[in-house]
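Tokens as discussed.
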């Protein structure tokens, strides 16, 4: 299928969006969570999804990670159909190896840290680069130590996750995601499982990642100040649809939709 709409780069070359959702539908039984969802995320763009619990935000991230099965529609990564494509006029599933090739471009940090308790911090970070990307152990460990230094945990390489605070575990999870050198980073309520005093340290690391890299980010969060600081665009979701799409300066100071106004009044 011809992939997607494009924008133009500095030299007039076509630049495909990092992510595109085309008529995406997701149902759980008789319950429709997403119904005809359409939006794009440009390369290097930071887009935050806000809205009440149950509005479909996390489902979007899980569909991109192929942790949930797409009911209908298409998701594109760099213009390539992720899990389904049109072939002979029919919507068909892509081959697992094609899906796997695209998902190596995507990293995700979850609400829960999902670290392997029987492995050290260093082993948690190097496991996937070695076994999925085929990197040598030495190369993977060098990169892991660089990332541990970046997230402020250089001295915890040989500790086990159970000996770390929740904030430290989440910082390890961020380093683990970055170790795969993803082009796209998905962040799913990464501070929701933390005690309030630990939230700042994790958000500080993510602010640094946003400032110092060109990774495309799709973020689900209830931390509105964080969303305002790192986002290029903010999308307000309600009942599986986009209610409003605006830059953070507009979304948080002068939202145009009554539903957005009511939601922000409740959470700010």
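Sequence:
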């Amino acid at each position: 299928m011809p992939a997607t709409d494009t924008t133009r780069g500095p030299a007039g070359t076509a630049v495909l969006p990092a992510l595109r959702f085309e008529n995406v539908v997701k149902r759980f039984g008789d319950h429709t969570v997403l119904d005809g969802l359409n939006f794009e995320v440009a390369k290097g763009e930071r887009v935050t999804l806000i809205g009440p619990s149950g509005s479909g935000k996390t489902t979007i991230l899980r569909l991109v990670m192929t942790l949930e099965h797409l009911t209908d529609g298409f998701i594109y990564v760099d213009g390539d159909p992720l899990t389904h494509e049109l072939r002979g006029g029919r919507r068909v599933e892509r081959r697992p190896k094609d899906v796997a090739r695209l998902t190596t471009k995507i990293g995700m940090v979850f609400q829960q840290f999902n670290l392997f308790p029987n492995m050290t911090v260093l082993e948690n970070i190097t496991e996937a680069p070695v076994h999925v990307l085929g990197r040598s152990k030495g190369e993977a460990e060098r990169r892991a130590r660089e990332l541990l230094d970046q997230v402020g945990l250089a001295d915890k390489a040989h500790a086990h996750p159970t000996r770390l605070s929740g904030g430290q575990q989440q910082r390890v999870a961020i380093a683990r995601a970055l170790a795969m050198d993803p082009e796209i980073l998905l962040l799913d309520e990464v501070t929701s499982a933390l005690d309030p005093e630990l939230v700042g340290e994790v958000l500080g690391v993510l602010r640094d990642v946003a400032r110092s890299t060109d990774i495309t980010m799709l973020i689900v969060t209830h931390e509105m100040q964080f969303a305002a600081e790192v986002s290029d665009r903010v999308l307000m979701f309600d009942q599986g649809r986009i209610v409003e799409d605006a830059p953070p300066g507009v979304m948080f100071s002068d939202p145009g939709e009554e539903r957005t106004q009511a939601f922000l009044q409740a959470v700010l």
